[in-house]
Amino acid sequence: MPKIKTSKEEVLKKVIPILRERGISKSSMSELAKACDIQKSHFYYYFNNKEQLIKEVLATVHSYFKYNLFRVIENKSLTIAQKLEKINLLIDKMFKNNHSGCIMANTALETAHLDPIYKEEIRCFFEDFITGLQILLLSNHDKEKSLSLAEQIVQDLEGGILLMRIYNDHKYINNAISRMEKIILNSKT
Predict the structure, then answer these.
(1) In angstroms, what is the C-alpha Rg of the chain?
(2) CB–CB of 57/12 below 8 Å?
(3) Res. 33: pLDDT tops 60
(4) To the nearest 10°, the Cα dihedral for 141, 144, 145, 146?
(5) Which range is most confident: 19-23, 34-38, 101-105, 159-163?
(6) Which of 149, 131, 112, 164 is nearest to 62 (CA)?
(7) Of 50, 42, 59, residue with least CA distance to 24
(8) How far apart (Å, rounded) are the C-alpha atoms in residues 65 and 62?
(9) What span, in angstroms and rounded, lies between the C-alpha atoms of 127 and 172?
(10) What is the pTM of this model?
(11) CB of 160 within 8 A of CB of 95?
(12) Measuring CA to CA, which residue among 44, 53, 40, 45 is closest to residue 2?
């Protein structure tokens, strides 16, 4: 019998990996409630509907990623190489879980043809990702070049994540990470 009491944060923590792996359309509220060990009716105590749940999941993932990315980037006691090591750990944690990829990109791909109710949160996630990498690149490049390279890196990483999912092989994301490191560590030419 499912337990009755759990926090909203616990629910989100349990549904994020499921939604990352299975996607929105293949994850029913009943299945998600069961995975959280709560009754479906209790699930609606926290979320009015599935759309609200997805918005909260995306906001939670975005907030976590942004906080951890900028905590590393803004740490003045770390070298750029040390920052890259920590960013790689964050990328591992966020994107390499069971070859399930990036929940933001997965959701964007799955819902692109629908009403864009998740689009703004996804856009903000990618803007923060690009901005964070751009900050690292500013030490060796001007503003325009650093923005272009940051966009290129995020595109490359997301492509690596997609291929990792398709082929169930981390080499694609690992190669993108290696290219990111080379771009960020290279001197201005």
Answers:
(1) 18
(2) yes
(3) yes
(4) 60
(5) 159-163
(6) 131
(7) 50
(8) 5
(9) 22
(10) 0.89
(11) no
(12) 40
Structure tokens at 77: 């006691």
Q: CA 25, CA 144: separation in Å to the nearest integer?
A: 39
DSSP 74-90: T-TTS-HHHHHHHHHHH
**pLDDT tens digits along 120-175:** 899 999 999 999 999 999 999 999 999 999 999 999 999 999 999 899 999 999 99
Residues 6+ apart with CB under 8 A from 33: 2, 39, 40, 42, 43
DSSP per-residue letters across 96-138: -GGG---HHHHHHHHHTTS--TTHHHHHHHHHHHHHHHHHHHT
CA distance 120 to 118: 6
Distances (CA, A) of 45 to 25, 40, 41, 86, 90: 21, 9, 7, 37, 32
